[in-house]
Amino acid sequence: MQHHDIPGTIVYDGAEAQKGYALNAMCYSFNSAANRDEFKRDEDAYCTKYGLNDEQRAAIRERNVLKLLAAGGNVYYLAKFAGILNLNVQDLGAQQTGMSVEAFKEKLAAAGR
Fold first, then answer.
1. What is the distance between the alpha carbons of residues 78 and 92, in angstroms, rounded to a whole number?
2. Is 82 in contact with 31 (CB distance < 8 Å)?
3. How far apart are CA 85 and CA 87, in angstroms?
4. Which 3 state secondary structure label does DSSP give 72?
């Protein structure tokens, strides 16, 4: 059974994967230092190279994780993009929840107790 009614959550399914294919492919390319450097030199040209749509380009420019997720981004691939910005997965989680990074880390620690 598919659950598409989780408030505040984007369910990453086949439709989201198709929507985000170009974005996720671009983020995967950041495994290569040469590709990260190319992106840093000309972000717009790099986005064009991978065929990102306007929504995805805007989210990249804004560095907005929630918009990247809404544009079909998969958090595991987006982590590659976040690395270019010197952000880690906890930084992404904080942005997703609207919490400070420290508050998000405390929430994680409390959940593990």
1. 9
2. no
3. 5
4. coil
In angstroms, the Cα distances linking 14 to 2, 7, 40 are 11, 19, 30
- pLDDT tens digit string along 13-25? 888 889 999 999 9
- The answer to whether the Cα torsion of 27, 61, 104, 5 is positive or negative is negative
Query: Is pTM beyond 0.85 here?
Result: no
Query: How far is 32 from 8, CA to CA, in rounded Å?
Result: 33
Task: Pick the closest to residue 76 from 14, 33, 12 (CA basis).
Answer: 12
Neighbouring C-alpha atoms within 13 Å toward the C-beta of 55: 13
19 φ, ψ (degrees, to nearest 5): -60, -40
CATH classification (class only), 14-86: mainly alpha
pLDDT digits (tens, 9 = 90+) for 38-69: 999 999 999 999 999 999 999 999 988 889 98
